Fold this protein.
Amino acid sequence: MSKFILQVSYDSALWTEWRQGEGPRYHSHKIIDSCIEVGFGGSGLSITADVDLDETEKLALAKCLVKDTVGFVPHWQTLTPDTHRTVQRVEDLLLSTARQVDHSFRLHEKGVRLPPPKISRVTPPNSHQLFPVFRWQLTDDELKLLSLCDPVSPDVTSRIKKSGLYVPCSPPFGQKQIHMKDEEVAEVFRNLDSSDEVPPYRLLYAISLETFTENRSFGSSVILLATAIETALKWCLRKKGDEVARYLLDNLQSPPLRSLFECVCEQYALQLPEKFGGWLNQLNRARNIVAHNPRDLEVEYLQVARWFATGEAILTSIAGKNVDEHVGMVVEPVGPRASTQFAQGAKGIILRTECSPHDSEMKYHVLMDTGETYYYSEGSFEVLSDRAQKFPDPT
């Protein structure tokens, strides 16, 4: 069994009892019928899991992570495609436990006011970036793998023996930097001069996305995302709809997202694909499960990505911009680089079309099932069949 450790913090808002002459207390708990132990000391939590990896997985992962640099911090691109699924399997176990631990703290009256949990992040030497990581604490047998990796100095070897290896977390909904062109900045300033009200739904959308990317919380992000889309659609109906629509919004129970969407498309003349209605219907079902049923939400990662892409497309259309008909579609990479860059069976969701910051070519921005995003040109991906486009209803 291989030992992996995830550190979780609450921005110094959660501490153990401090005793004179002893310092902060440390507590540990082995979760019943599991291979997981939770530690709580000082201002942070640790989750330790024993995971069964075969020798091939261990060696492949070690070769990616062992570098002859003191303080080396890997990021997702450090890994090879064949190690992606291994890391995601370990990460899923650690993060699902972190959510359980977080929930247990929030059940206590003192935990109600806790901020969202944060995964440990480290900064590589000579860098200002922070990368989310967990640690692989190598056993004596696993330390023998070092002889099969690239040679490293005694200092690096000593550090690995003492502290283990950093393992990068997958980049959920990893967003690329936004580069604003001169004319786009000018448009922003024109909006600033002409705006007379600040609707809440765009900030709600941003909060829902942050909840998903930072805290890996499907349930919370789904509720926030559905609320953001519902608020945007109602805002449009109130602003552009007729008196009947306004009366219904004021006096009747809120209709499902699909009905709101279809009404807005008709009243507000939004040019959006009809298939969005079905996707919103599944989002509405997921929101109701989280809000009304005492169980965890089971939904695929790419389906959540599709919902965010749909929400972004609706906000984009409301702002008067065109939306590509392929937004939200499931695709797979093709071409000579696909097999070397992605794991077998890798798929993605089209988020939007936009100009790459590196050139003026309009490309498809695709989120892969590893969490990375890529710019795809025509011919570098294939839209999957109608059957492969369908996700099961959330349960």
Notes: The mean pLDDT is 87. The first strand starts at residue 2 and ends at 9.
